[in-house]
Amino acid sequence: MNATYLDFEKPIAELEAKIQDLRHASHGPALDVEAEVRGLRNKLRIRSAEIFRNLSAWQIAQLARHPARPYTLDYLGRAGR
What we know:
Blueprint: H1 10-25, H2 34-53, H3 57-64, H4 72-79
């Protein structure tokens, strides 16, 4: 699991890991996992909406300070492109 997930984001991380595992497993012969991946993506979308809809004030502050959040220099680097 990626270390940049906050505690309340763990269900999201677990679903994303399952999707990645299925994607890697689908490279084998005659394995079609697209239906399962679609189902997991739908479940991920619903679960993410539930989590982010019910955040506490502290959890919102944690997201604002998230280590993976872009910084000003990240945006300035893209301005010249």
